[in-house]
Design brief:
Elements: E1 2-5, E2 8-11, H1 26-39, H2 44-51, H3 55-62, H4 70-80, H5 84-87, H6 91-99, E3 103-108, E4 111-119, H7 125-135
Antiparallel strand pairs: 1-2, 3-4
Helix pairs in contact: 2-3, 2-4
């Protein structure tokens, strides 16, 4: 993907990053972040300073170990001169997927009549309202 030139990597446009893709995962976000950083001829410390984030955080994002919080995504995008949606198009869905499963049920010990239900999914307002009505019966 990249070759070393005088201590820094130079991004080659022929790499496998398709910026038109609307749905990406952590690894694709990491590639986009790294690519944009290199286009500015920045290293991780430069991006950390420009965004106000810690260098360790930037490193975690570039290595695809973590995804940023919404605030940190905005800081990265601002520092790189792009919109957050350009840097991570499906951030909202990816963040939810990272944080919790879409649906889970848990039986309460000693209470056979009740269960905990956790729904972590974006749904239309009409469906959310129906769920609230059911839960309040």
């Amino acid at each position: 993907m990249a070759e070393r030139i005088s201590g820094r990597s130079e991004y080659k446009a022929s790499a496998d990053i398709d910026l038109s893709v609307k749905t990406i995962r952590k690894t694709e976000f990491a590639k986009r972040l790294y690519s944009l950083m290199l286009q500015k001829n920045w290293n991780q410390s430069d991006l950390a300073r420009a965004s106000g984030l810690g260098r360790d955080s930037v490193s975690q994002y570039i290595r695809a170990n973590n995804i940023p919080s919404p605030l940190n995504l905005k800081k990265l995008a601002d520092a790189l001169g792009v919109e957050p949606v350009e840097l991570y198009p499906n951030y909202e869905a990816a963040a939810v997927e990272e944080e919790a499963p879409a649906l889970s049920f848990r039986q309460m010990p000693g209470d056979d009549e009740h269960m905990w239900v956790r729904i972590n999914k974006k749904v239309p307002k009409r469906i959310a309202t129906q769920i609230m009505v059911l839960l309040n019966e």
